[in-house]
């Protein structure tokens, strides 16, 4: 029997990755390495993600593979935020220039602590340390190491320019273009046909495009033929060969200008995407028992520590407010525009921004388990799960360029041999136009940026999508299945009726129920305990047993007590009475005798009806509600919300069976999405075509099982997610039609001798710039 070998996920930053086609080549080459189970390059964040097994030869082999394809790219390991737990005696960058040790700041130093910059950067003395989050602004280098390595440090933590040009590189590119343009202008002014003209145009060509030609030559020796450098070099050198000096130089100048604008557009898109995820807190102000405070990295703070958050600061870790009150801006995490009140006892999440007031918070999660870490990890890794459209474009690009190059070669050679009066120079020129057009950059750059932009926009709206494949799948959803409790209803139960049987008092019935439910964490149990209000005597409950899908059996003060639904009473052969009131009913029996029932009502969420209506408006053909609750309660909720089908009194396994039955009924007509609270619905979330967890930030099970996580408890966000998915698909297909349509038209025009190299260059870099700018529209938030 074969066993599946465990894999380990590793990530590297590819600093200087400025070409989407190159990213695709790196991904394809690394995938073929021994021991690599999967590989994905996120061009937007310059991250290489690899899953490896025991056969993996090591990081150095990855570096060699990447550098063999792109020598200018630096491969820097990206560490997870929780990889290193640094000691508390860290050094903190306080003014951007010097490092100083921070001693505990006592009461009279509080002003100094308050004035500490919000973007202080923690350094570990004597050993490297990385924040891990690619979009953070931290620095990572050994204390005392020369600043010559600053670029590598910034790349490891994501700071610095998203493109290898950087500010200095952009300046050099502009100077090269200017020098080439001046030399070309001089070439136009001198008499034509002489060596002076050729010399000036040759100098202009080398000034403008020498780097392109050199890169093409290096790629040839590495066996990388069909890339944009080779195609552009071949086309322009060919122009010189047939005496078209001015056009060869002009095309290279236009190409470089277009590449510069493309880089600027891509960088702008990258900055817009990273700005959406700029939610990582840089520092935490920890308060000690003596009242002193110290600023440290959030990774160093431990559960139980007390942190102080002042106005304007981000909450650095998940916790509970123990002192003070403030209004919290939660929009970065949940998409909610209205600030949320936080006072003593309120749970707050990392990434919230304190609008006013000073609060003290007791930390409940270490940083790597905090809400902000989970969000960043999900969004950054979303590109690993690629949509069918992305995979299609990758395969298409691999075949498209060689086919066009072969077609160009045939176009240069065949017509002069078979068409009377045709000249080689004319048809070679047409073939060169073909070569300029053939680079698939517009598709390879804009489509991943479009999907990543859509995922970023969803995150900004409080919706975490775990991959562009799930975002694309939302477009095909026609049936949405809801869990009831905690999804369409608030899950905040209240005891509304106590119905004791003859011989039992109300107070005793409620006490029995409270003792029986005292070991359960279910919302129904919590509502009964809240209604009881008294302490539970230690040791009063023994032989506690939860009966899945039925209820509880427990020995209470020597008596056997059953508490559960009607199925439990039927199973135990106990006669019972069903109350008329709508709500969840808990029946109780004592030593085999029916003791009565307690009715608990759940409140429907404020936007649940609007969510169902918005789905119908979005073209969802069927809405279904599944619940383990009583049929009467389920029917009443379903009728109030306008749900098409209601299935009640289901055990967890029955919900999976119901989903499978729905899939059989709807096969070929669309996908099924299941929406649950992520606690008891893990099997169904995993089984559905698209699993959506509601309010799942605190539930590891939800994040693991679901494909999409709604960070709030608002079912209306599902309509928002579908809206984002449809807009993203529209933008992606606009780019595909634009790129292929323009390229196809210019290929025909070039073949018939109508299009010149000028138009050919526009069809390449110009369309790429337009497509990238169009992809940025996916970043906008969608309101439903």
From TrEMBL:
InterPro entries (alphabetical): ATPase_P-typ_cyto_dom_N (IPR023299), ATPase_P-typ_P_site (IPR018303), ATPase_P-typ_TM_dom_sf (IPR023298), ATPase_P-typ_transduc_dom_A_sf (IPR008250), ATPase_P-type_domA (IPR059000), Cation_Transport_ATPase_IB (IPR051014), HAD-like_sf (IPR036412), HAD_sf (IPR023214)
The identity of this protein, by name, is Cadmium transporter
Q: Name one Pfam family in it.
A: Hydrolase
One example GO MF annotation: P-type cadmium transporter activity
Q: What reaction does this catalyse? A: Cd(2+)(in) + ATP + H2O = Cd(2+)(out) + ADP + phosphate + H(+); Zn(2+)(in) + ATP + H2O = Zn(2+)(out) + ADP + phosphate + H(+)
**Major place of residence:** membrane
Question: Which stretches does the entry tag as region Disordered?
Answer: 78-169
Q: Where is the HMA domain?
A: 8-74
Q: Where is the composition biased (Low complexity)?
A: 110-119
Bias-annotated ranges (Basic and acidic residues): 92-109, 121-152, 160-169
Q: Which organism is it from?
A: Paenibacillus stellifer
Q: Which family does it belong to?
A: Belongs to the cation transport ATPase (P-type) (TC 3.A.3) family. Type IB subfamily.
Record keywords? ATP-binding, Cadmium, Cell membrane, Ion transport, Magnesium, Membrane, Metal-binding, Nucleotide-binding, Phosphoprotein, Translocase, Transmembrane, Transmembrane helix, Transport, Zinc
Where are the bilayer-spanning segments?
Answer: 196-217, 399-419, 431-458, 736-755
- Topology in the lipid bilayer: Multi-pass membrane protein
């Amino acid at each position: 029997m074969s066993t599946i070998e465990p894999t380990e996920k590793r990530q590297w930053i590819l600093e200087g990755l400025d070409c989407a086609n190159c990213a695709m080549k790196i991904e394809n080459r690394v995938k073929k390495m021994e021991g690599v189970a999967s590989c994905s390059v996120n061009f937007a964040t310059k991250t290489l993600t690899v899953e490896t097994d025991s056969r993996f030869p090591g990081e150095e082999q990855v570096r060699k593979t990447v550098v063999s394809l792109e020598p200018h790219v630096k491969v820097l390991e990206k560490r997870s935020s929780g990889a290193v737990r640094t000691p508390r005696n860290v050094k903190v960058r306080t003014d951007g220039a010097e490092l100083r040790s921070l001693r505990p700041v006592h009461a009279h130093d509080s002003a100094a602590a308050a004035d500490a910059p919000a973007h202080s950067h923690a350094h570990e003395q004597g050993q490297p340390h990385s924040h891990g989050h690619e979009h953070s602004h931290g620095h990572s280098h050994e204390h005392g190491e020369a600043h010559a390595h600053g670029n590598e440090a910034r790349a490891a933590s994501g700071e610095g320019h998203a493109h290898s040009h950087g500010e200095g590189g952009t300046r050099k590119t502009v100077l090269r273009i200017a020098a080439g343009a001046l030399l070309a202008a001089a070439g136009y002014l001198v008499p034509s046909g002489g060596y002076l003209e050729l010399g000036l145009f040759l100098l202009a060509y080398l000034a403008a495009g020498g780097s392109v030609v050199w890169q093409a030559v290096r790629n040839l020796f590495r066996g990388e033929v069909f890339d944009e450098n080779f195609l552009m070099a071949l086309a322009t050198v060919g122009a010189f060969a047939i005496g078209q000096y001015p056009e060869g130089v002009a095309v290279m100048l236009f190409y470089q200008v277009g590449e510069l604008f493309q880089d600027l557009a891509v960088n702008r898109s990258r900055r817009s995407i990273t700005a959406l995820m700029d939610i990582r807190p840089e520092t935490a102000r920890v308060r000690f028992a003596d009242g002193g405070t110290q600023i440290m990295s959030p990774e160093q703070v431990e559960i139980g520590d007390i942190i102080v958050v002042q106005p304007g600061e981000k909450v650095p870790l998940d916790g509970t407010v123990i002192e003070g009150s403030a209004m919290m801006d939660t929009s970065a995490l949940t998409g909610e525009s209205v600030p949320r009140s936080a006072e003593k006892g309120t749970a707050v999440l990392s990434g919230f921004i304190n609008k006013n007031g000073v609060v003290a918070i007791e930390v409940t999660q270490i940083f790597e388990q905090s809400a902000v870490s989970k969000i960043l990890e999900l969004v950054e890794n979303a590109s690993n799960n690629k949509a069918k459209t992305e995979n299609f474009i990758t395969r298409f690009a691999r075949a498209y360029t060689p086919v066009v190059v072969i077609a160009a070669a045939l176009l240069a050679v065949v017509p002069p041999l078979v068409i009377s009066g045709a000249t080689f120079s004319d048809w070679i020129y047409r073939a060169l136009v073909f070569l300029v057009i053939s680079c698939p950059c517009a598709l390879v750059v804009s489509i991943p940026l479009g999907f990543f932009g859509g995922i970023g926009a969803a995150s900004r709206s409080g919706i975490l999508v775990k991959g562009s494949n799930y975002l694309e799948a939302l477009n095909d959803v026609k049936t949405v299945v809801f869990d009831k409790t905690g999804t369409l209803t608030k899950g905040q139960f209240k005891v509304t009726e106590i119905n004791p049987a003859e011989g039992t008092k109300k107070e005793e019935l409620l006490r029995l129920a409270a003792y029986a439910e005292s070991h359960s964490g279910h919302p129904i149990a919590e509502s009964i305990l809240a209604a009881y209000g008294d302490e539970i005597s230690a040791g009063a409950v023994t032989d506690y047993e939860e009966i899945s899908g039925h209820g509880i059996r427990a020995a209470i003060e020597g008596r056997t007590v059953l508490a559960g639904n009607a199925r439990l009473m039927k199973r135990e052969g106990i006669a019972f009475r069903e109350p008329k009131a709508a709500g969840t009913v808990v029946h109780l029996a004592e030593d085999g005798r029916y003791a009565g029932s307690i009715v608990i009502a759940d409140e429907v969420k404020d936007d649940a009806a609007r969510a169902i209506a918005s789905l119908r408006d979005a073209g969802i053909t069927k809405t279904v509600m599944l619940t383990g609750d009583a049929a009467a309660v389920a029917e009443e909720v379903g009728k109030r919300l306008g749900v098409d089908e209601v299935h009640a009194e289901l055990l967890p396994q029955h919900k999976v069976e119901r989903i499978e039955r729905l899939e059989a009924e709807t096969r070929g007509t669309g996908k099924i999405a299941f929406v649950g609270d992520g606690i008891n619905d893990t099997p169904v979330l995993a089984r559905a075509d698209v699993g959506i967890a509601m309010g799942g930030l605190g539930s590891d099970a939800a994040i693991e099982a679901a494909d999409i996580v709604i960070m709030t408890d608002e079912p209306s966000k599902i309509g928002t997610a579908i809206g984002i998915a449809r807009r993203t698909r529209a933008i992606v297909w606009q780019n595909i039609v634009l790129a292929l349509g323009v390229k196809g038209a210019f290929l025909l025009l070039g073949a018939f001798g109508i299009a010149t190299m000028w138009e050919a260059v526009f069809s390449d870099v110009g369309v790429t710039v337009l497509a990238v700018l169009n992809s940025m529209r996916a970043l906008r938030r969608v309101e439903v």
